[in-house]
Amino acid sequence: MVVYAYTSMTKVINPAGWSDDNHPERDSTVFYGEYKCSGPGSSAAGRVKYTKHLTDEQIKPFLSLGYIQGSKWLLPPPNPKV
């Protein structure tokens, strides 16, 4: 699973977005999504056909700290009043 959100993509990004390394059976097992990316590498022209351009609703789970179990490994933000 690969999801890019709010990512500035330079022209070094491969326009296809994904390579199956000559194993087309991998194409059916990958999830490739993009949400509000910018820059010359963010153009969807040439992307693999199964690239998903995610909606506001579809991206929500991926932007949640719960998705990455953030409470288990991320420190809380500093308290400026201390």
List keywords for this structure.
82 residues; mainly beta
What does this entry show, briefly?
The chain has 82 residues and is mainly β.
Note down, in words, how this protein is organized.
This protein is mainly beta. It has one domain. It has one helix spanning 56-63, and strands spanning 2-5, 32-35, 52-53. A 3-stranded parallel sheet has the order 1-2-3, covered by helices on one side. The longest helix is centred in the last third of the chain and has 8 residues, at 56-63. The N and C termini lie far apart (40 Å). It comes from Prunus yedoensis var. nudiflora. Its EC number is 3.1.1.11. Belongs to the pectinesterase family. It is found in: Secreted, Cell wall. GO terms for molecular function: pectinesterase activity.
Order of adjacent strands in the largest pleated sheet: 1-2-3
Q: How do the SSEs run, as a string of H and E?
A: EEEH
Tally of strands: 3
Radius of gyration computed on alpha carbons: 16 Å
Question: What percent of residues are in strands?
Answer: 5-15%
Amino- and carboxy-terminal Cα gap: 40 Å
Shape: elongated
Topology diagram in text:
Blueprint: E1 2-5, E2 32-35, E3 52-53, H1 56-63
Parallel strand pairs: 1-2, 2-3
InterPro entries: Pectin_lyas_fold, Pectin_lyase_fold/virulence, Pectinesterase_cat
Subcellular location: Secreted, Cell wall
Protein name: pectinesterase
